[in-house]
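Entry:
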Amino acid sequence: MAGAALLVLAVAGAQPAHAHQPVVLTAADTTPARGPLLVDGTVSFAVYANVRSGTSRGFRVGLRQGDRLEIQLLIPDQPPANRLPASQLPVVRVTAPDGTQQRLPITERTPFFEPYSGTEYLYLARLTAPASRGIYRVVVTGASPTETPVVIGVGYREVPGEVR
């Protein structure tokens, strides 16, 4: 499984990818500096990870002044993930290029059907804000003792993107 995830990252990093591009974070991606860079954060990416209490996964997002920062946190709408109490849901923190940090507040459990994979998800948090020029750092941290799969949606434009 880890080998397949590394292969996805290697292929994604070697060439431009397609709209709604999947990016898989592995155990090696413990911080944004160790994780991939989504070169243009306006492109629609689906960043997949598994986290549990005490583990984090990170990646970076490049944006220009005047772009729109869009980040969403989703979990599968199936047990055990959809039965987790609020205190055990994953936490996403976004650090702007100027160093300011923001935690995405979990304010919803809105169903979402993802047609590309045929998977039902729950939106937990969404962030939309004007972007500053530079690199945003994103970290998702687990809070449950059991492994929780998460998807972090980034961007809004369904065009090819680049992952490094």
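The CA atoms of residues 87 and 96 lie 25 Å apart.
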